[in-house]
Amino acid sequence: MSSEPAAVCGKDSGEQSALHKQSRTMYPRVFAVDLHDVDGDRFQDSRQAGFSWYVLTTTLLVSLSVISIGWSFGVVNISKSIICQISPLGPGNTHSGEFPNRIPFSNSAWTIAVGILAVGGFLGALVSGAISDSIGRRNALVVNNGLCLAGSVLMGTATTAVHFTLGRFVIGIACGVASGVANTYVGEIAPLKWHGFYGSFFQLSIVIGLLFGQLAAMHATGGTGWRIVVAFPGVFSLIQIALLPLRVESPRYLLKAHHINEARHALLTLRRGYDVAAEWQESLLSLDVVEINASNVRYHSDQWSATAAAASAVPANDQADATALDKNDSKMTMKTKGHKTVDDNVAASSLTFAENMPVERATHVSGVWQTLCGRTRDDLRHLMACCIVLMVLQQLSGISAILFSDSGVVRDILDPFSPLSAPWTCVVVCGTSLPAIFLCLACVDRLGRRALLLGSLGGMSVCCVLISAGLFYGPNSMVMAAVFLCYFAFNMGAGIVPWFIISEVIPSYSLSAATTLCCSLYWVMSIAIGLMVPLIENIVPQWLFVIFGCFTLAGFLLVMLFVPETMNCPITEVVKKHSGNIHVVVKPYRRLNASGSIGGTSRSLLELFKC
Description:
This protein is mainly alpha-helical and 611 residues long. The protein contains 28 helices and 10 strands. The chain has helices at 13-26, 53-78, 80-83, 107-135, 137-156, 161-189, 195-199, 201-219, 225-231, 233-243, 251-256, 260-270, 277-285, 304-313, 319-322, 344-347, 368-372, 381-396, 399-403, 408-411, 421-447, 449-473, 476-494, 497-505, 508-539, 544-562, 571-578, 601-610; strands at 84-85, 95-96, 99-100, 103-104, 297-300, 334-335, 341-342, 350-353, 591-592, 598-599. The longest helix has 32 residues, at 508-539. It is globular, with a radius of gyration of 26 Å. The two termini are 23 Å apart.
């Protein structure tokens, strides 16, 4: 991807440069710890930070939790005949040592064991926000990996149907927590300019987990090899338990928890080599406190540690004494070495809270109901509605009916005498979706969120029409081609953007509530679709994708009218522009040229996508 900074929220380069110069005069300057022999005027705003290996490796490490979600779904999609012996008695119920080669299941018991993962995911998503707010995003993932490890051990050592089902439920709770916390953590550490790139790793990890989980299950052909396959997410958990504590916590969480020193260190680690003053100020403004302005934040080089500790420890009415600083010493000094160098003390300095901090310092965390009703500092009803619609559309698009081999859509159009045809088709569908995700990784921070969502939902609507036409009139080859194209289109936007757009439009004080609600709805809709699809297939099978096509078309229209563009746009600016009740974000473009006729058609169409 290009290293040139992209325009922020539709502003041209001249306006962006003017805003950057204004921010440099408005905010104090903060420098990374290990920079030497540099000119301070050449530091770039961290909001335009480029690629970072530290952020990438942290994102990849967090993505292991998400791979476990895909793996847990995919592994039982194929391994029913390997794991369970439907008849309570029979040759399949043989033992190898202490563990049976297969576990006796009835058809209904197996259905419960498969579906209970989504029930656990719903419960985990419900508590994900509270956990991440109480112990932090990183620590929540570490604790959650302990739960995932326990579920993996339960499934790997299962001897009865109840034992196996309990393991699925426990690992489902871990998947639900991970779906909420992982997105929040990555969204809060990713630089603004690359937010879409790092946020897209969530869907990439799910698809990788589905793909390799299904492949592993297909090769676990006998004995107790399936136990290793179902317990394999425990390996991902052990890796994260060992390595995640070595990564920094989210700076926004640390600010919200009043750990000012740690927040400063975390932000400088994530944005090494950049001026983080403006980003720090935006992080402060995203907190729900009574009063924060530029005069509340002051730069000091020598007394940072003592001042920050005092500001976070003493009562609010005593902070004027604890944070009294000499204004004459608040400038950064540079010594020359033929030119300019950064002194060690200066390089380690940062922002501090100064006098006039609010009397009520504690930040207020808004609940789900308050956020939905607009009873927060900013009225977030419109932005919350957009997040909810996008998350629900993932399931209403019918993607579950395509992915899983028990679905009649894939099963009925393949050779009934080839039982592995449907599983292999699901594996190939997942494999061919990887190019779509990589293409999205390259385009999401160039084309914008709206363009990808509109293209994705529009393409899925067309594919649903083709699938329905093929089911009515044939041929089956057209149905299979449309199935592949539909999942490809899904992973170009509708399956990726909803996961990270929440952290782009919701401020820190309501982010946990928004993530909890959206992820919970995702799991609820997963349960509902899993129950409704077999029912519809039994009644009107050929009309199933007509229904899904209507949902994707409605989603296309809703995105076009109501979802704002968030690419390279700070949260504070998104909230300022789109707070309030639900409203249309598309504006009519009728531009008159010098002769009085309507012009600018091509640019108007482009702006319709970017809005």
